[in-house]
Design brief:
By secondary structure, the chain is an alpha/beta fold. The protein is built from 16 helices and 15 strands. Helix 12 packs antiparallel against helix 13 and helix 12 runs parallel beside helix 14.
């Protein structure tokens, strides 16, 4: 399977590049995880579904993947830079809980949502608070190499000095002179700004104020790590000084990922990542969805339909399908119409998968099944294009329905091929799954038993019972179809 010519868009070069792992057959992938101070929302679902599919596809191609995704439980301040209150500490104060109670509560909520979305567990999930020593050691190396300085108990990365010999801003496309000018226009009264040599410098370590609960001892006094240093330290620990893939949302390009590059080069003297991958945003009326903007809909609200913007509840697989029907680098705007269309598309694939199990072969094939399989792989190899992949799977669904209706035929060999790759792409690679109604895991067996009772009723000319079973099943979303080959059902 490793003969595939997989290409991905590298944010660093802004080009689509052939993927070649550092160690043949092995991939190291780091994806920025959540800051756990609230319920996961639709904006969180997109990167983790995107990179779950990438993880699944790399594994399908035969790679041994080490997938690392962190939990940020300290150091992420309100304005995503160096001022304001720690987001978790603030939530703890508002809810009158200990910060680590907040962390445990929302980490559990995050894991529950990832499970419902059918995302596979990552290989390693380090927490920032569990890697304070590694962060301190990396900061010490950056200082020793001349790229950072201590000021009043805090430590700052010297962006101006670093930029004299390095390309700070290359990943995000920012121009250093503009960054310095822009930072200089900020209010100097912001917490910590007066401590910096230049407003564009960013914190590696922050001195803790007396009231700050989350604090650790360091060579510079009691404090806590900056947001950016966490990912540099944890990715280096588990994947090495240079690894294959770093993923995350486009909103993290600057300052987070740009600062990661500078920190890692400052500590280790080399670029940390070969391929940077960024998914685009989920928007509402064209504006990014996020907690800081207050315009988010959390996933639990989607699943229950309890948010005022929702016309109905949407299942986890509908959310997954909604995200996968767009290329990961394209923006996706929330709408009830889009979600309802995704619900119908998902149902079409799931019904086709059920029908596929009952198909019988013929003497010839009226469709080119091997070409469809090839097209699915080509779409995934072309920068993980799940949207095009789904279009090919819908063509498979059309063929399945036509063969079932008797308007097309398929040979035994092509039928076996179709069963194998359609199932593999829908369930194993894209990570979709059939969702049970009412929580039952044996829904198919239960329906078959009910339909047998109906068949027996018809055989005994008890059409009243037969029609009653059909109508009541239809009322809860199951369409019953009587055919020459027997009775079948689909989920509406």
């Amino acid at each position: 399977m490793l003969t595939h010519q997989l290409h991905i868009t590298n944010s660093l070069s802004r080009k689509k590049e052939k993927f070649e792992s550092i160690v043949p057959g092995r991939v190291g992938m780091y994806v920025c995880g959540p800051t756990v101070y609230g319920h996961p929302h639709l904006g969180h679902a997109r990167p983790y579904i995107t990179f779950d599919v990438f993880y699944r596809y790399l594994t399908h191609l035969g790679y041994k993947v080490r997938y690392v995704r962190n939990i940020t439980d300290v150091g992420h301040l309100e304005n995503d830079a160096d001022s304001g209150e720690d987001k978790i500490a603030k939530k703890a104060r508002l809810e009158q809980l200990e910060p680590m109670e907040i962390v445990e509560l929302y980490t559990q909520k995050f894991h529950e949502a990832m499970h419902l979305l059918n995302n596979l567990p990552v290989n390693i999930e380090p927490r920032a608070s569990g890697h304070i020593i590694e962060q301190i050691e990396m900061i010490k190396s950056i200082i020793a190499n001349g790229w950072a300085y201590e000021s009043k108990g805090s430590v700052y990365f010297d962006v101006v000095n670093y930029s004299k010999t390095h390309d700070y801003g290359k990943l995000s496309g920012r121009v250093i002179d503009e960054l310095i000018a822009g930072a200089g226009n900020e209010r100097r009264e912001l917490e910590g700004q007066a401590e910096k040599r230049n407003p564009a410098d960013f914190a590696l370590w922050k001195k803790a104020a007396p009231e700050h609960i989350m604090r650790w001892p360091s060579p510079w006094g009691d404090g806590f790590p900056g947001w950016h240093i966490e990912c540099s330290a944890m990715s280096t620990k588990y994947l090495g000084e240079t690894f294959d893939i770093h993923g995350g949302g486009m909103d993290l390009l600057f300052p987070h990922h740009e600062s990661e590059v500078a920190q890692s080069k400052g500590a280790c003297g080399k670029a940390p990542v070969r391929y940077w991958m960024h998914n685009n945003m989920i928007t509402i009326n064209g504006q990014k969805m996020g907690k800081s903007l207050g315009n988010f809909i959390n996933l639990e609200e989607f699943f229950t339909g309890s948010h005022k913007l929702l016309e109905q509840a949407y299942s986890p697989m509908t959310i997954r399908f909604f995200i996968l029907q767009a290329h990961y680098r394209s923006p996706v705007d929330f709408s009830n119409e889009g979600l309802k269309a995704a619900e119908k598309g998902l149902s079409r694939l799931m019904n086709a998968a059920q029908t596929l199990r009952r198909l019988t072969s013929g003497a010839s094939s009226t469709s080119d099944i091997p070409s469809l399989q090839k097209a699915c792989y080509e779409a995934m190899d072309d920068d993980l294009n799940t949207a095009i992949t789904l279009s090919h799977l819908f063509e498979c669904a059309r063929i399945i329905n036509s063969v079932h209706a008797g308007t097309e035929t398929i040979t035994a060999a092509d039928l076996e091929l179709l069963k194998n790759f359609f199932t593999e792409f829908v369930f194993s690679i894209l990570g979709l799954k059939e969702e049970s109604v009412g929580g039952g895991s044996d829904i198919d067996a239960l329906l078959q038993m009910i339909l047998k009772v109906r068949t027996d009723a018809k055989a005994n000319k008890d059409f009243s019972t037969s029609d009653k079973i059909r109508d009541e099943l239809a009322a809860i979303g199951f369409k019953i179809k009587d055919e020459k080959s027997g009775t079948s059902w689909t989920r509406e």
